[in-house]
Amino acid sequence: MQRPTTISLRTELYSEVSSIVELEYASELTLDELAQRVASSRRQLQRAFAEVGNTTFRQYLTRVRMDRAAEMLIRSDLTVREIAHNVGYRQPAQFAKAFRRRHGAAPSDYRSAGRFSASFENVDAPVAAAA
To answer: Alpha-carbon distance 89 to 81, whole Å?
Structure first.
């Protein structure tokens, strides 16, 4: 069983690093760099992500990037290549592969499906109000 201070420290580390990732997800973030920024060790951050977040740093970073990409696909007219670059990927093919793994569809298909369902939501709203 872990000591309460250990749990508290790891929770704080996870929270601090998660906040950095949420703001700087497009940057080339590494576990070593983040450990240095939060005055911790690489191993402590690995433990924090495993125990508090039930994930790895790499999985967390990818999840944040893919979720931001999904928002951009639906809400912007940027190309898939531009979105890939905006969320930190140099290679659109690697981005597409990661996106498909996370969301179950290619970025362009996800965009089409998202806009299609959004157009139905917009069509239903005025009809309901008029009735």
So the answer is: 9
Q: DSSP label at 40?
A: -
Number of domains in the chain: 2
pLDDT in tens, 28-80: 999 999 999 999 999 999 999 999 999 999 999 999 999 999 999 999 999 99
Query: How many angstroms separate the first and last alpha carbons of the chain?
Result: 61
Cα–Cα distances (Å) from 92 to 28, 44, 80, 87, 97, in that order, read 16, 32, 7, 11, 9
Q: What global pTM score does this model have?
A: 0.83
Classified as helix, coil or strand, 1 is coil
Domain that holds residue 5: 1-55
